[in-house]
Amino acid sequence: MLRACLLTALPAFVVMAGDVREEILVVVNGHIVTRRTFQQAVEQDAVALYRQYSGKELDEKLRDARGKTLQGLIDSFVIQDKAAELGIQVSDEHLQSIVEDIKQQNKFNSDADFEQALRTSLGIGLADYLKRTRQQLVQQEVLRREIFSKVAIEDQELRAYYEDHKDEYRMPSRFRIRELVLPRGTTPEEQQASQAKLNEIQTALKTGKSFEELVKAYSTSPTQSTGGDLGWLTKGLLMPTIESAALKLKTNEVSAPIETAKDITLVQLIAADLDAVRPFADVKASILEKLQEPKAQSAIETYLSQLRVRANIRYMVAKEIIVKG
Protein backbone atom coordinates (compact mmCIF):
# COMPACT_ATOMS: atom_id res chain seq x y z
CA MET A 1 0.00 0.00 0.00
CA LEU A 2 2.82 2.39 0.93
CA ARG A 3 4.57 1.61 -2.36
CA ALA A 4 1.43 2.45 -4.33
CA CYS A 5 1.09 5.77 -2.48
CA LEU A 6 4.68 6.72 -3.21
CA LEU A 7 4.17 5.99 -6.88
CA THR A 8 1.08 8.15 -6.98
CA ALA A 9 2.98 11.00 -5.35
CA LEU A 10 5.64 11.06 -8.07
CA PRO A 11 5.11 12.81 -11.41
CA ALA A 12 3.00 10.52 -13.60
CA PHE A 13 5.63 10.14 -16.26
CA VAL A 14 8.83 9.43 -14.31
CA VAL A 15 10.09 7.30 -11.47
CA MET A 16 13.26 8.00 -9.55
CA ALA A 17 15.73 5.09 -9.50
CA GLY A 18 18.93 6.48 -7.99
CA ASP A 19 19.95 9.20 -10.41
CA VAL A 20 18.05 7.59 -13.29
CA ARG A 21 14.70 9.03 -14.37
CA GLU A 22 12.47 6.51 -16.11
CA GLU A 23 9.14 7.10 -17.75
CA ILE A 24 6.33 4.96 -16.36
CA LEU A 25 4.05 3.46 -18.98
CA VAL A 26 1.79 1.21 -16.92
CA VAL A 27 1.20 0.50 -13.23
CA VAL A 28 -0.03 -3.04 -12.49
CA ASN A 29 -1.11 -3.37 -8.87
CA GLY A 30 2.16 -2.37 -7.13
CA HIS A 31 4.39 -3.06 -10.15
CA ILE A 32 5.52 -0.68 -12.87
CA VAL A 33 6.34 -1.07 -16.55
CA THR A 34 8.84 1.58 -17.61
CA ARG A 35 9.63 2.63 -21.15
CA ARG A 36 13.12 1.15 -20.85
CA THR A 37 11.76 -2.20 -19.59
CA PHE A 38 9.18 -2.26 -22.37
CA GLN A 39 11.70 -1.37 -25.08
CA GLN A 40 14.11 -4.07 -23.91
CA ALA A 41 11.31 -6.65 -24.03
CA VAL A 42 10.27 -5.46 -27.50
CA GLU A 43 13.83 -5.85 -28.80
CA GLN A 44 14.24 -9.31 -27.26
CA ASP A 45 10.92 -10.51 -28.68
CA ALA A 46 11.84 -9.10 -32.10
CA VAL A 47 15.12 -11.05 -32.10
CA ALA A 48 13.17 -14.24 -31.37
CA LEU A 49 10.73 -13.51 -34.22
CA TYR A 50 13.58 -12.90 -36.69
CA ARG A 51 14.99 -16.30 -35.77
CA GLN A 52 11.70 -18.13 -36.26
CA TYR A 53 10.06 -16.40 -39.22
CA SER A 54 10.84 -14.65 -42.49
CA GLY A 55 9.16 -12.80 -45.33
CA LYS A 56 5.46 -12.05 -45.14
CA GLU A 57 4.94 -14.16 -42.03
CA LEU A 58 7.65 -12.18 -40.21
CA ASP A 59 6.06 -8.87 -41.24
CA GLU A 60 2.70 -10.00 -39.85
CA LYS A 61 4.27 -11.10 -36.57
CA LEU A 62 6.20 -7.84 -36.17
CA ARG A 63 3.04 -5.83 -36.83
CA ASP A 64 1.42 -7.18 -33.68
CA ALA A 65 4.60 -7.62 -31.65
CA ARG A 66 4.54 -4.43 -29.57
CA GLY A 67 0.98 -4.97 -28.42
CA LYS A 68 1.65 -8.60 -27.50
CA THR A 69 4.85 -7.67 -25.68
CA LEU A 70 3.04 -5.03 -23.62
CA GLN A 71 0.23 -7.43 -22.76
CA GLY A 72 2.80 -10.07 -21.84
CA LEU A 73 4.52 -7.72 -19.38
CA ILE A 74 1.22 -6.82 -17.78
CA ASP A 75 0.09 -10.43 -17.56
CA SER A 76 3.40 -11.47 -16.02
CA PHE A 77 2.78 -9.13 -13.08
CA VAL A 78 -0.85 -10.24 -12.75
CA ILE A 79 0.20 -13.89 -12.69
CA GLN A 80 3.07 -13.09 -10.34
CA ASP A 81 0.60 -11.68 -7.82
CA LYS A 82 -1.64 -14.71 -8.25
CA ALA A 83 1.37 -16.93 -7.58
CA ALA A 84 2.01 -15.05 -4.32
CA GLU A 85 -1.64 -15.61 -3.39
CA LEU A 86 -1.23 -19.34 -4.08
CA GLY A 87 2.07 -19.51 -2.19
CA ILE A 88 4.06 -20.52 -5.28
CA GLN A 89 7.79 -19.87 -5.05
CA VAL A 90 10.92 -20.89 -6.95
CA SER A 91 13.95 -21.44 -4.73
CA ASP A 92 17.42 -20.07 -5.43
CA GLU A 93 18.69 -23.66 -5.34
CA HIS A 94 16.32 -24.68 -8.15
CA LEU A 95 17.37 -21.71 -10.27
CA GLN A 96 21.03 -22.51 -9.69
CA SER A 97 20.46 -26.14 -10.68
CA ILE A 98 18.98 -24.92 -13.98
CA VAL A 99 22.05 -22.75 -14.59
CA GLU A 100 24.39 -25.64 -13.80
CA ASP A 101 22.50 -27.92 -16.21
CA ILE A 102 22.76 -25.36 -19.00
CA LYS A 103 26.45 -24.77 -18.30
CA GLN A 104 27.11 -28.49 -18.39
CA GLN A 105 25.13 -29.11 -21.58
CA ASN A 106 26.85 -26.23 -23.38
CA LYS A 107 30.28 -26.84 -21.83
CA PHE A 108 30.53 -23.42 -20.15
CA ASN A 109 33.40 -23.57 -17.65
CA SER A 110 32.22 -20.67 -15.48
CA ASP A 111 29.38 -18.28 -14.75
CA ALA A 112 31.39 -15.63 -16.63
CA ASP A 113 31.36 -17.75 -19.81
CA PHE A 114 27.63 -18.36 -19.41
CA GLU A 115 26.94 -14.66 -18.85
CA GLN A 116 28.93 -13.74 -21.95
CA ALA A 117 26.82 -16.17 -23.98
CA LEU A 118 23.65 -14.64 -22.52
CA ARG A 119 24.73 -11.13 -23.46
CA THR A 120 25.59 -12.26 -26.97
CA SER A 121 22.39 -14.24 -27.61
CA LEU A 122 19.80 -12.44 -25.47
CA GLY A 123 21.40 -9.10 -24.62
CA ILE A 124 21.00 -9.62 -20.87
CA GLY A 125 23.25 -10.53 -17.95
CA LEU A 126 23.01 -13.48 -15.57
CA ALA A 127 21.03 -11.58 -12.93
CA ASP A 128 18.36 -10.56 -15.46
CA TYR A 129 18.28 -14.08 -16.88
CA LEU A 130 17.69 -15.58 -13.43
CA LYS A 131 14.95 -13.04 -12.74
CA ARG A 132 13.25 -13.80 -16.05
CA THR A 133 13.57 -17.56 -15.57
CA ARG A 134 12.10 -17.34 -12.06
CA GLN A 135 9.12 -15.41 -13.42
CA GLN A 136 8.61 -17.94 -16.22
CA LEU A 137 8.72 -20.90 -13.83
CA VAL A 138 6.25 -19.21 -11.50
CA GLN A 139 3.89 -18.44 -14.39
CA GLN A 140 4.11 -22.01 -15.67
CA GLU A 141 3.25 -23.39 -12.23
CA VAL A 142 0.25 -21.05 -11.86
CA LEU A 143 -1.11 -22.12 -15.25
CA ARG A 144 -0.39 -25.77 -14.49
CA ARG A 145 -2.37 -25.63 -11.25
CA GLU A 146 -5.16 -23.39 -12.41
CA ILE A 147 -5.61 -24.55 -16.00
CA PHE A 148 -3.67 -27.56 -17.24
CA SER A 149 -4.41 -29.77 -14.25
CA LYS A 150 -8.12 -29.28 -14.99
CA VAL A 151 -7.92 -30.15 -18.69
CA ALA A 152 -8.80 -33.83 -18.80
CA ILE A 153 -7.19 -36.05 -21.42
CA GLU A 154 -8.17 -39.71 -21.43
CA ASP A 155 -5.38 -42.27 -21.38
CA GLN A 156 -6.91 -43.79 -24.50
CA GLU A 157 -6.43 -40.50 -26.34
CA LEU A 158 -2.79 -40.29 -25.21
CA ARG A 159 -2.06 -43.80 -26.41
CA ALA A 160 -3.83 -43.18 -29.73
CA TYR A 161 -1.64 -40.14 -30.33
CA TYR A 162 1.44 -42.21 -29.50
CA GLU A 163 0.48 -44.93 -31.98
CA ASP A 164 -0.24 -42.39 -34.73
CA HIS A 165 2.97 -40.40 -34.18
CA LYS A 166 5.56 -43.04 -33.39
CA ASP A 167 8.02 -41.46 -35.80
CA GLU A 168 8.24 -38.51 -33.39
CA TYR A 169 9.55 -40.85 -30.70
CA ARG A 170 11.79 -43.02 -32.83
CA MET A 171 15.32 -43.33 -31.44
CA PRO A 172 18.45 -43.38 -33.60
CA SER A 173 19.29 -46.92 -34.69
CA ARG A 174 22.26 -48.29 -32.78
CA PHE A 175 24.10 -51.55 -32.38
CA ARG A 176 26.88 -53.03 -30.28
CA ILE A 177 29.54 -55.47 -31.48
CA ARG A 178 32.77 -57.16 -30.55
CA GLU A 179 35.64 -57.25 -33.04
CA LEU A 180 38.52 -59.67 -33.48
CA VAL A 181 41.18 -58.30 -35.78
CA LEU A 182 44.05 -60.20 -37.36
CA PRO A 183 46.67 -58.63 -39.67
CA ARG A 184 46.53 -59.99 -43.22
CA GLY A 185 50.30 -59.85 -43.48
CA THR A 186 52.39 -58.55 -46.36
CA THR A 187 54.49 -61.62 -47.14
CA PRO A 188 53.28 -65.11 -48.06
CA GLU A 189 54.63 -66.40 -44.74
CA GLU A 190 52.75 -63.74 -42.73
CA GLN A 191 49.55 -64.36 -44.67
CA GLN A 192 49.87 -68.11 -44.08
CA ALA A 193 50.36 -67.51 -40.33
CA SER A 194 47.27 -65.29 -40.19
CA GLN A 195 45.21 -67.90 -42.01
CA ALA A 196 46.38 -70.54 -39.54
CA LYS A 197 45.27 -68.37 -36.61
CA LEU A 198 41.94 -67.72 -38.31
CA ASN A 199 41.43 -71.47 -38.72
CA GLU A 200 42.20 -72.01 -35.03
CA ILE A 201 39.70 -69.32 -34.05
CA GLN A 202 36.92 -70.70 -36.25
CA THR A 203 37.54 -74.22 -34.94
CA ALA A 204 37.42 -72.95 -31.36
CA LEU A 205 34.12 -71.17 -32.06
CA LYS A 206 32.59 -74.38 -33.38
CA THR A 207 33.50 -76.14 -30.15
CA GLY A 208 31.74 -73.43 -28.10
CA LYS A 209 34.71 -71.28 -27.12
CA SER A 210 33.75 -67.76 -25.99
CA PHE A 211 34.30 -65.15 -28.70
CA GLU A 212 35.34 -62.67 -26.02
CA GLU A 213 38.06 -65.00 -24.78
CA LEU A 214 39.27 -65.60 -28.34
CA VAL A 215 39.50 -61.84 -28.87
CA LYS A 216 41.69 -61.52 -25.78
CA ALA A 217 43.88 -64.38 -27.01
CA TYR A 218 44.26 -63.47 -30.69
CA SER A 219 43.12 -59.95 -31.60
CA THR A 220 45.66 -57.26 -32.47
CA SER A 221 43.14 -54.42 -32.11
CA PRO A 222 43.40 -51.88 -29.24
CA THR A 223 40.02 -53.26 -28.09
CA GLN A 224 41.65 -56.60 -27.23
CA SER A 225 41.77 -55.83 -23.51
CA THR A 226 37.99 -55.18 -23.39
CA GLY A 227 37.15 -58.32 -25.31
CA GLY A 228 36.71 -56.40 -28.55
CA ASP A 229 33.66 -54.50 -27.29
CA LEU A 230 33.20 -51.32 -29.35
CA GLY A 231 30.29 -50.06 -27.26
CA TRP A 232 27.08 -48.69 -28.74
CA LEU A 233 27.47 -47.39 -32.29
CA THR A 234 25.16 -45.51 -34.63
CA LYS A 235 24.97 -46.31 -38.31
CA GLY A 236 27.68 -44.85 -40.48
CA LEU A 237 30.55 -44.97 -38.00
CA LEU A 238 32.12 -48.24 -39.20
CA MET A 239 33.46 -49.32 -42.58
CA PRO A 240 30.42 -50.20 -44.73
CA THR A 241 31.54 -53.82 -45.23
CA ILE A 242 31.90 -54.40 -41.49
CA GLU A 243 28.70 -52.57 -40.58
CA SER A 244 26.70 -54.39 -43.22
CA ALA A 245 27.97 -57.76 -42.03
CA ALA A 246 27.28 -56.90 -38.38
CA LEU A 247 23.68 -55.83 -38.99
CA LYS A 248 22.89 -59.11 -40.77
CA LEU A 249 23.83 -61.14 -37.67
CA LYS A 250 21.58 -62.46 -34.94
CA THR A 251 22.44 -61.65 -31.35
CA ASN A 252 25.69 -63.40 -30.27
CA GLU A 253 26.26 -64.69 -33.82
CA VAL A 254 29.77 -64.30 -35.29
CA SER A 255 30.34 -63.17 -38.86
CA ALA A 256 32.37 -64.83 -41.57
CA PRO A 257 35.86 -63.32 -42.01
CA ILE A 258 35.75 -59.80 -43.43
CA GLU A 259 38.87 -58.89 -45.38
CA THR A 260 40.08 -55.32 -45.76
CA ALA A 261 43.31 -54.01 -47.28
CA LYS A 262 45.27 -54.64 -44.08
CA ASP A 263 43.20 -56.83 -41.77
CA ILE A 264 40.93 -59.80 -41.40
CA THR A 265 38.06 -59.06 -39.04
CA LEU A 266 35.44 -61.15 -37.30
CA VAL A 267 32.56 -59.41 -35.56
CA GLN A 268 29.99 -60.61 -33.07
CA LEU A 269 26.67 -58.83 -32.61
CA ILE A 270 26.05 -58.17 -28.91
CA ALA A 271 22.79 -56.21 -29.25
CA ALA A 272 20.90 -54.04 -31.72
CA ASP A 273 18.22 -51.35 -31.35
CA LEU A 274 17.17 -50.76 -34.92
CA ASP A 275 14.25 -48.39 -35.51
CA ALA A 276 13.47 -48.56 -31.79
CA VAL A 277 10.72 -46.30 -30.41
CA ARG A 278 10.76 -44.76 -26.95
CA PRO A 279 8.30 -46.56 -24.66
CA PHE A 280 4.89 -44.97 -24.16
CA ALA A 281 5.54 -44.60 -20.42
CA ASP A 282 8.62 -42.47 -21.14
CA VAL A 283 6.80 -40.00 -23.40
CA LYS A 284 3.33 -40.01 -21.83
CA ALA A 285 3.93 -36.78 -19.89
CA SER A 286 5.12 -34.88 -22.97
CA ILE A 287 2.14 -36.15 -25.01
CA LEU A 288 -0.21 -35.04 -22.24
CA GLU A 289 1.30 -31.55 -22.31
CA LYS A 290 1.09 -31.41 -26.11
CA LEU A 291 -2.58 -32.41 -26.18
CA GLN A 292 -3.52 -30.20 -23.25
CA GLU A 293 -2.10 -27.04 -24.77
CA PRO A 294 -4.59 -26.45 -27.61
CA LYS A 295 -7.50 -27.45 -25.38
CA ALA A 296 -6.28 -25.07 -22.70
CA GLN A 297 -5.73 -21.99 -24.89
CA SER A 298 -9.24 -20.64 -24.57
CA ALA A 299 -9.27 -21.50 -20.88
CA ILE A 300 -5.99 -19.63 -20.39
CA GLU A 301 -7.32 -16.51 -22.11
CA THR A 302 -10.48 -16.62 -20.04
CA TYR A 303 -8.45 -17.08 -16.86
CA LEU A 304 -6.11 -14.18 -17.71
CA SER A 305 -9.08 -11.96 -18.54
CA GLN A 306 -10.51 -12.65 -15.10
CA LEU A 307 -7.18 -11.83 -13.44
CA ARG A 308 -6.92 -8.59 -15.43
CA VAL A 309 -10.40 -7.51 -14.38
CA ARG A 310 -9.52 -7.99 -10.71
CA ALA A 311 -6.13 -6.28 -11.07
CA ASN A 312 -5.53 -2.55 -10.75
CA ILE A 313 -4.06 -1.72 -14.16
CA ARG A 314 -3.41 1.97 -14.86
CA TYR A 315 -2.01 3.28 -18.14
CA MET A 316 0.13 6.34 -17.43
CA VAL A 317 0.57 6.70 -21.19
CA ALA A 318 -2.31 5.85 -23.50
CA LYS A 319 -2.12 2.22 -24.65
CA GLU A 320 -2.49 3.23 -28.30
CA ILE A 321 0.54 5.52 -28.05
CA ILE A 322 2.65 2.83 -26.35
CA VAL A 323 1.80 0.23 -28.96
CA LYS A 324 2.29 2.63 -31.86
CA GLY A 325 5.74 3.58 -30.51
**In percent terms, what proportion of residues is strand?**
5-15%
Uncertain spans, ≥5 residues at pLDDT below 50?
1-11
The CATH architecture assignment of the largest domain turns out to be Orthogonal Bundle
Number of domains: 2
Radius of gyration: 32 Å
Report the CATH C-level class of the largest domain. Mainly Alpha
Helical stretch tally = 12
Strand order of the largest sheet: 6-5-8-7
Tell me the helix content.
55-70%
CATH homologous superfamily designation of the largest domain: Porin chaperone SurA, peptide-binding domain
**Total beta strand runs:** 9
> Distance N terminus to C terminus?
31 Å
- What structural category characterises the helix and strand content? alpha+beta
Could you explain how this protein is built, in words?
- This protein has 325 residues and is of the alpha+beta class.
- It folds into 2 domains: 193 residues, Porin chaperone SurA, peptide-binding domain (Triger factor/SurA peptide-binding fold), CATH 1.10.4030; 100 residues, Chitinase A, domain 3 (Roll), CATH 3.10.50.
- The chain is 57% helix and 14% strand.
- The protein is built from 12 helices and 9 strands.
- The strands form 3 sheets. It has a 4-stranded antiparallel β-sheet. Strands 4-3-9 form a 3-stranded antiparallel β-sheet.
- A hairpin with a 3-residue loop joins strand 7 and strand 8.
- Helix 2 packs across helix 3.
- The N terminus is likely disordered.
Topology, please?
Elements: H1 2-9, E1 15-17, E2 20-22, E3 24-28, E4 31-34, H2 35-52, H3 55-86, H4 92-105, H5 111-121, H6 126-146, H7 155-164, E5 174-183, H8 188-206, H9 211-218, E6 229-234, H10 240-247, E7 258-259, E8 263-273, H11 280-310, E9 313-315, H12 319-324
Antiparallel strand pairs: 1-2, 3-4, 3-9, 5-6, 5-8, 7-8
Helix pairs in contact: 2-3, 3-6, 7-11
